[in-house]
Structure formats: C-alpha cells, structure tokens
Amino acid sequence: MTETISAEGAARRRYDAIIVGAGWAGSALAKRLGAQGWHVLVLEAGNGGTETWPGYLDSLSTYYAAVAKVPNSAYRRNKAAPYPDVLDLAPVRDPEPGRPEFTANGYFVQNGRLPYGTDYLRELGGAAMHWLGAVPRMLPDDFATGTVYGYGRDWPFTAEELQPWYAEAERELGVAGNAEEQKDLGVVTDSAYQYPMHHIPQSYLDERCRTLDGTTVNDSVADEDYALKMYGLPQARNSTPNPAYPAPYRIQGAVGIPNYGERCVGNASCVPICPVQAKSHPLRLQAAWPGTVTLATRCVVTRVRKGRDAYVSGVEYRTYTDPASPVSRSYVAEADVVILAAHAIENARLLLFSELATGSGQVGRNLMDHPTILNWALTPEAKGPIGPFRGPGHTSGWEVFRSGFGRSERAPFRIEIGNWGWGWATGAPLSNVATALGLGGTPDGSVRDKGVYGPELRRLLGSSIGRQLQLQIAVEQSADENNRVTIDPARYRDAMGNPRPILTYDLDEHVRKGLYAARLVARQIFGFLEATDYTDHAPRDGVPPLGHFVHSGTHLAYSGAGHGAGTHIMGDDETTSVVDRDQRTHDHPNLYAVGCGSMPSVGTSNPTLTMMALALRSAAEIHKDLTAARRPARLRTPQHEEVPA
Amino acid sequence: MTVPAAAKGEPADVPDELAEFVRYCVPLTGFAAFDLHATGMARLYLDTARHQVGEKRFTTFWTAWKQAVAQHKGPQDLSPVHQEVARALIYLWYTGAWPRLAPAAHAALRREVANAESVASPSAYVEGLVWRTFHGHPAGAKPPGFGTWAVQPPAPQSVEQLRTGLGLADVPYRTGLTDEVSPDEIPGRLLPGPRISRHIPPSAVPTADAAGTPEESTA
C-alpha cells in the first residue's frame, strides 16, 4: 500500500504530477506514472477507510441498514465533499404543462426540462466502489456517428487505434469474458485475443432468453427487422483464470484481507457493494502503487493554479476533519503536470471555477448519460421460476439494436437482461411483501381491507417474485451543447464554499425515439417469452414518475445509468473541443482532464472500460511529457559527442 | 386457526414471552417456529413492535390476535387498525424493516414515532424471510456460490405442502385470499407498481395496475 499523508504534509513537497481524484482513472494513472519513477501526489476529496477490512465491513453494514438500497447507500453523506444521489430527485404533483415535472434537492442545482438522474460518489475509489463491473467495448461505428449516421460527434481516432489500450485496460481491471463472442460482435479485432479470466457463468434466465436466438423483432421506429442473438457480458469480476491468456494472470481478491474474494460467490449486490470484493475496484490498483505515489484523502481541490505562460503550476486544496461540519484551511501543492480525474462533472466544475481551458467555450457542455428505460413482466407459472435476485446484475444482453442504419432514425440501445427481478423498477422483492399484505393504506389514508397472510402469502410471494423479469435498456445519448454544467459561485456553494454544479439537461428527439423504440421492442420480447407485461410509466394520481415524458402518445420514463460523460470532450480542433486526443487541454500544455468527460460519444457501452483505455493511453503521453521536460541540458558541443559503444 | 404445540421446534432456554411471540407469529408468517427462532431476531422484533406501536397498544393488539387464533380466525378478522399492525409485524419478519403504516392506523394508534420505514438492524435485513419464499438469498449476504445462478431454482411449495409442514393442514379456510388466485392472473393489487422515485420506501410503493394497462396518453 502506498504512503498516505496529511494535507499539510502534501503541501510541503513538489511533485512531478498531481492527480485529482482516486477513482479508476486517477488510480490507474498513478500506478503507471509511479512505476516509471515519477513522484505523484493523489488528492482525494472523500474519506478513505474502505481499504481496511473493518472499514469495508462498516460500509457493508451501512448498506444493510439502509431503507432505500440505492447505489450510494453503503456510504455516509459528506458535507465537505458532497455528491449527488438518486434520492435527491422528487416528482412534482400535477405539473403545469411545459414546466419541469421534478425538483432537485441535493448537490446538483437542476434547471433543465428533464432530470439528470445519475449519481456518483466522492470516496476513496470513487463511483467505482458502487459500479456494476460491466465492461463491454465500444463498437467501431460508435467512434464516427457523425460521419456514418449523421448525428453526434466523431472521435479524433478510430476504434482500431484503441484496441491495444482496451486490452491493457482489461488486464488492469481484471476482466472475465468470452473473447470469441466479442470477436463475433466486432469489438475485438485481434483474432488471437483472450480475456484474463473465463467468462462469468450466464444466468438460468439468460438460458431461457437464448431460446429466442434467431427470432425476428420489428423496430417500427427505424422500420427495420432485427434477428435476436444473445451475447454474454464481459465483466470486471473474478471468475476462473484463463490459461489461454498470453501472460500469467494472477487473480486479485479483496484489499485489506488476504485470500478472499478471488471468485464471485453470487451475493447479487454488485451495486451498491460486493461483500467479498470479487468485483474489481480501484483500491486494488492503489494497493499496487509503488512508493513514489503519495495519497492524501479528505483533500478537496478548489482550483487549479495558473503558472507562467499557458502552464499551470499546481492546485489549491482544502482539508477537513469532521465531514459533518467542515472547518477548513487552504493549502497549495505544486507539480509539473496536473491531471484532473475527478469525474466528468467535477472536472468541469474545477475547470470552470479555475477559469481554465476556456478557449473553445466547450467546458461543461455536451453532458451525457445512458438514459435507461425499464420494462418488467412476469413469466408464465407453468415454466417454473426464473431465479431472479441471483448472480451479477446482468450477465447477458441483446446487442443487435446497437448498430446498423436504424441509428440514423433513432438512438441505438443495448438490452440488458436483468438478473435482479423488478428491483430497480418497483423496489421488489420488499415491495412485493407490502403490496401482498395490503400495507400502507389506500390513497386516502385508510386501512386496506384486503391482504394475504400466512402460507398463502408465502406461496404468493414465491410465485410472483420467482417469475420477475426486467429488461433495462440503455439508450445512447449523443453530445448536445445545450446539455451542460455551469457554476454560479455567487448563488450556489457547498458547505466548504466550493461552487455546486448547475445542470441543464434534456433529451433530444433522437434519444426519445430510441427510448420509444426500446419500449416497443421489449413488449415484443415479452410476447415471445409468453410473459405478462406490467410495465407502467404513466402518472399515478397526478404524480408522474421521474424522467417521465410522452412520445407518440405513449407514457415513457427513463432512469439515469450512472454514466456521466462529456463536459470536456476531445477533438483535434481546439476551437470545438476542450482536450486533445491525449486528454491534454488544448489551452494548457501541462493540464490534463481525463475520464468519461473526454468522450465525444458513449455509444451503448458502459463507459468505464473505454475511460480506462484512454487513461492508460494518456499515462504513456504524460510520461513522454515529463521525460522531455527533464531531459538534461546539452553541455558539450556537437563535435565532441561520444560515439555509442 | 391453531398454533403448533409449544414443544414443536422450540429451542430450550427461550423465555416464555418469546416462545409465545414466535408461536403466534407462525400463522401470520407461514414459517415454522423453527425457522422463526433460527433467524435470531425474535427478541429484536418483539421489542421493535412494542416500541413502534407503544407498549400498551401492542398488548391490546396481541391479546386480540391470540383470541382470534383461539377462535380459528385470521388477521383479516381483526379490526382494521389491528390488521395493519399484524401486517407490519409480518413485514418486519419478511424484510427486517418496520414499514410505513396506513395513515389512519398511525393516527388511531397515537404513535410517538414517525410513520416512516426503518430497518430494525443490519442483521435483521439479512434474516428477512421474503428471500426464502422464492429460494433466494438476501442481496449482499448468504451467497449461494459461484455459478449457482445458472441453475433453475425449485418451484415454490404449494399452499397444501406449506400448511402440512406447519401443522396447519386441517384449517379449512384461506388466510386472506377469499378466492383461488391463478398464478398467471395475479390481481394488480397484490403486486408492486412502479416506484415513481427512488426515495419511496418499499412499504410505500403503490400497487400495480392490471397487466397490459394501456400506456397511451390521453393528453
């Protein structure tokens, strides 16, 4: 484990690189740069503690005791380093037409037409502490949607250029997957490629869904037919080492306790927390940091400092002792390179407050997510239970709607076959108990007269929970300048005095059509499975669900996927993008902004893998920068140069 | 309805009060005394129910429930307020959390605590019975092992099998269900509907509309 120091200790030295944020990207960069001998300071705004086993068990206990087991439920709120939570949003009763149907009462100020329903976490390890661990690569055409399909932004390079970095990222993350399937899908182009671990077993439900392979589904929005074919999901989750993997791969288990978590045991709680740490997280990378890397937690970076010319000189940060009532002091740390790796929205907030990288006017713009529509149904009793609430959150999906010319008509989508029943949509299985009992009263507050008890209750729940099928369908959202993060320090600051992000968010017609098409496709799939569709996105007693909108006369609603992206997107043209292809800001040669914020498009892939590939690629560039800066001055004249032996 | 004899499935050294509590929770939950004791939660749940309902009012409820059992009746025959308390107690056993009550029951009980759902303790969540109804395990605990999710779980037991196992087989009527409900046509009122925002606790999720309710907007 690396050296952890106090805020004051961190301020006393000069570093080669300062990394803001100890999530996936920051941890990977620190590991790479540290291994090359560079002195790296990592500043994490949130608390540490989970790198010890007792600290981790405390998080697990916090999750057990939470009424709403949302992604952040294993962590306590932190006023000094606040973060958004899905619990911050509430719907509005009887909204006026044309007015927002929600209120936001947390860290984010939201003034858009629709809610940005995505959270993140400011803790050691970042939001990766609650991620699912889904790591599909992006499709080749995802990198050029503007050219190929006429919407969104193109990347400055191709998927092919990213292939070796994807492979590197899969090694660092520890990925279990079926390489042959991914080659068939076209996202792995090296025909010899293997994943470090054998694929995670697919669920019984997946096997039932596989019977639909070859079935034709009509997408009436794109006016195209698609043949279903199920694919397994590559996951950053421990399974069995793959002997065909070219380099020896040693599985990494839990941090803080030896010989534990070396294989997934099916706790079925990857989000919010894997109790055995078989799900990969950044604390693993941190455990492998060399002695050249220094970590300071509870250090909230307030701004990046300008140096001479276009260069930056370091960062200003504040520390705190009590997260509930922060009293802080300001410090300065200096370095040759500053790397922002604090989450797309936090990076944008820091750049805006520091008034840096302003050249293109694009900082904070092009905020993205994967708006996700939930569909839920009961499979027929005669075929027996499907085994919900078991295994990883999802182990397979239908990929065919992710590519093809349907994308010109509507946003593409990826259908996740959910292994956790109606949990996300309805709060099952606990809400099943309440509704079967008739708890909670009628809308007017009186006690309900009907309910089921005893053996009948047990039987009813066994049947009605055991057959729960949920398809969560994540839709691509492309870059739109009007979806943005801004700040207004005069009006909105957090308890430590840092500006709160102000979000303006909406879904364009292309995305709405994608969500609508996804809903229609799910209906057909339920029909093929003889499942009874209970999907319901209509307002209830005048209260619309969060993310509600009407499209083609149909009530729809979306949830956030936790895939915050955009805000400092990359490009070759400094007038239209914030960072270059190496994630270096166009305006400041020694300031990098890394993470999902750099992505010009997110395709239909969970973005962490692509983000990690970019981070590892940037680590190589930063190493070159630092090497160039430290090249000793040439003192001899050319004619006396020695000839190498 | 009858309760199983005290000797059946009862561990030694259990105080009478607790033994009785568990015995009369058998017909409420549909789980045997053995299973209820095995959760290790009986003391916590009795204390939680007393605290939530109020010592005096809980005693009144408990007396009424014992009387109902003696007269071969079920929770549906209790007064509305007592029926809601019975539901809350079952919810506690099934989920480890005390639920939000119908506001009318909350008012009638003159409760001194907020009418909000709360988890009795971290270990109570882990001991929830609901997971066992479908051969599952609590999310985040009691993991069944690598790859187990690839196997189809057994079908739930029939009501007759459950009753026989509980020693309640000879009871002639249904507990709460007046009519036979086909598993393929479960009425919406017995299923959860959409949770329109994430801060809604599980006990306050509205019931589902009938399946296939039109999603078309009239607006």
Structure description:
The complex is a heterodimer of chains A (645) and B (219). Chain A has a domain of 400 residues: 3-Layer(bba) Sandwich (FAD/NAD(P)-binding domain), CATH 3.50.50. Helix content of chain A is 24%, strand content 17%. In chain A, helix 12 crosses helix 13. The longest helix of chain A is centred in the last third of the chain and has 22 residues. The longest helix of chain B has 16 residues. Chain B is built from nine helices and two strands, in the order αααααβαβααα. Chain B starts with 15 loop residues before the first helix and ends in a 53-residue tail after the last helix. The model of chain B has no long low-confidence stretch (mean pLDDT 90). Chain B has a domain of 147 residues. Helices cover 40% and strands 2% of the residues of chain B. Chain B is mostly helical and 219 residues long. The chains are: A alpha/beta (645), B mainly alpha (219). Chains A and B meet through helix 3, strand 4, helix 11, helix 12 and helix 13 of A and helix 1, helix 5, helix 6, strand 2 and helix 7 of B.
